[in-house]
Amino acid sequence: LKIYRQRLQQISNIVETNLVHLREDQLNWKPAAKCWSVAQCLKHLILASEGYLARMERVIGAYNQNKIASKKYSPTISGKIMFFMVDP
Predict the structure, then answer these.
(1) Which residues lie closer than 8 Å to 44 by C-beta, 6 or more apart?
(2) Model's pTM, two decimal places?
(3) pLDDT tens figures, 42-59
């Protein structure tokens, strides 16, 4: 869980470092009509991640309170599929 939290912070830092200086028109620019803009990609990533990030925060909170420290993590089949789909 600590590694995931660190990775999310790294991603946030990369986005902030590389995109904070862009103007609105640059963020919304599309290389082609059927392509997504940077803003659309970010919006998609944020919306797609909201559901599982909230669940991860609850798990991290429970872990930090030693409510699940003795349990071994085992993903569900849908969790395994989701992991496979987002794995680089």
Answers:
(1) 36
(2) 0.55
(3) 888 888 777 777 777 777
Question: What are the pLDDT digits (tens) for 6-24?
Answer: 888 888 898 889 988 999 9
Which residue carries 């993903």 as its tokens?
75
Which residue, 78, 11, 70, is CA-closest to 45?
11
User: Which residue in this structure is represented by tokens 């085992």?
Assistant: 74
SS3 content of the chain, % helix, strand, coil (to 5): 70, 0, 30
Structure tokens at 70: 């003795």
Burial degree of 48 (CB within 10 A; 0-12, 13-18, 19+): exposed
